[in-house]
Amino acid sequence: MKDVEVTFPLIEDISMNVAKKYGIIQPNEDTTKAVRAVFFIDPKGIIRAVIYYPLSLGRNFDELYRVIVALQAADAFDIATPADWEPGDDVIIGPAGSCGTASDRMQDGELDCKDWFFCTKKLDKQVVLDRILKK
Predict the structure, then answer these.
(1) Which helix (H) or strand (E) holds 36?
(2) 12: burial class by Cβ within 10 Å (0-12, 13-18, 19+)?
(3) Whole-angstrom Cα distance, residue 118 to residue 83?
């Protein structure tokens, strides 16, 4: 790839100090080879998600991007995202039990409640992207 600007920090860990601290030395492999791990660290320095890949498996960058967008959407809209969620898909309203107190929102069609503990709602793709990309 040419002319690609990386706007986030990357770690080169030749000494393996970071790999040892994070416990990502791959078992039964050379002690100088770490697993391929992606740590999603928020602006407050909190690790929000970790995805591990063995040395033999390539990473799925579409999935990495999806995770970043889902984490940012969860923070921006106080929601949860189901498996394989993409912007524009329904989101989950939490916490559990919130649907039982939201009958007015159910009647307005804002919420789709499957049971007292599980409600979803529509969240427009452009609204999500505008908010997390701060357009």
Answers:
(1) strand 36-41
(2) exposed
(3) 15
Residue 35, classed as helix, strand or coil, is: coil
Do 36 and 98 lie in one domain? The reply is no
What are the structure tokens assigned to 40, written together? 């999603």
Give strand pairing partners of 116.
none
- Can you give the pTM of this predicted structure? 0.73
Domain of residue 28 covers 17-53
CB-facing half-sphere around the CA of 49: CA atoms within 13 A = 13
- Per-residue pLDDT of 59-94, as tens digits, reads 888 999 999 999 999 999 999 999 999 999 999 987
- From CA 55, how far away is CA 31, in angstroms rounded? 13
Partner residues linked to 111 by β-bridges? 121
Count of domains forming the chain: 2
Domain limit, last residue, from 9, 33, 53: 53
Q: Is residue 41 helix, strand or coil? A: strand
Angle between helices 125-133 and 61-77 (to 10 degrees): 90
CA 97 from centroid of its chain's CA atoms:
24
